[in-house]
Amino acid sequence: MSAALQMTAFGLALLSTLFLLLATCTDCWMVNADDSLEVSHKCRGLWRECVTNMQDGVRTCDQYDSILADHPVKIVVTRTLLISADLLAGLALATLLLGLDCIKFLKEDPRVKLKMCYGAGVTLGIGSILGLVGSVWYAVDVYVERATLVSRNIFLGVHYDFGWSCWLGMAGSTGCFAASVLLTCCLCTCTEPGSRQPPQRPPQPRGPSATSKMYAVASRV
Predict the structure, then answer these.
(1) Would you list the DSSP string of 130-178?
(2) What is the pLDDT of residue 111?
(3) Which pLDDT score, from 0 to 100, does residue 4 have?
(4) Cβ within 8 Å of residue 141, ≥6 positions away
(5) This prediction's pTM
(6) Residue 123's pLDDT is what?
């Protein structure tokens, strides 16, 4: 049961980490939400903005300025949180891989491997919170920006909605959180109590009892 739970958590963590990496690297966090008469499909990401011509399929991208340049708050915050979530998820994935029961690393010390699984679960939980906050922050900011323009009857030519990269970040963060729950709560419940207790030492032989000492003295007399 414990080995099956570990493999399930590892598979979920691996897939969720890939989702987070794709969300960080791709450039479709915002898409144009206008009617179907548009001849181009516009996407904005964390690193560049791309426009795809719907007639001939030609795609052109405009790279943002350097990282040190001034950017909107939502881009800076989302970049920081997503990169931190990627690093933590990758570290947790490597730790979990070494802590699996099917890996021969530290096979003679199962308690250390179990602690590695717990540590990977905690790290995944922290990374999932960072990734989820970054993705939701970006989505809420886009929604508020669009709602503000609509309420003031302002039309700038293009209205944006959050795209599939934002959804991918949310899905990856949720998957990492689910893997964290499996590794911390469920694994602790399913692990046998005997495997977490330190091995009992064999009883040490005691010295001669008081009765034997009295018998030895009586025989001498």
Answers:
(1) HHHHHHHHHHHHHHHHHHHHHHTT---S--EEE-HHHHHHHHHHHHHHH
(2) 78
(3) 78
(4) 73, 74
(5) 0.74
(6) 92
pLDDT beneath 50, residues of the chain: 1, 193-199, 213, 215-218, 221
DSSP H helices in the chain: 2-25, 73-99, 110-151, 164-181, 187-190, 193-196, 210-220
Residue 32, C-beta contacts closer than 8 angstroms, at least 6 positions apart: 38, 40, 41, 42, 158, 159, 160, 161
Q: Could you tell me which of 27, 33, 45, 61 has the C-alpha nearest to residue 160?
A: 33
CA atoms within 13 A on the CB side of 155: 3
Distances in Å between the Cα of 10 and the Cα atoms of 107, 112, 179 are 18, 17, 7
> Residue 153 region, left (φ>0) first, then alpha (ψ -120 to 50), else beta?
left
Looking up tokens 């350097």, which residue turns up?
A: 66
What sign has the CA pseudo-torsion 111, 117, 120, 121? negative
Inter-helix orientation angle 110-151/2-25, to 10°: 40
What is the CB neighbour count within 10 angstroms for residue 74?
20
Rounded-to-integer distance, Cα 71 and Cα 64, Å:
9
User: What's the token pair of residue 93?
Assistant: 């994935």
**Residues in CB range of 114: below 8 A, 6 or more apart:** 99, 187, 191, 195, 196
Residues 6+ apart with CB under 8 A from 92: 13, 119, 120, 121, 123, 124, 127, 176
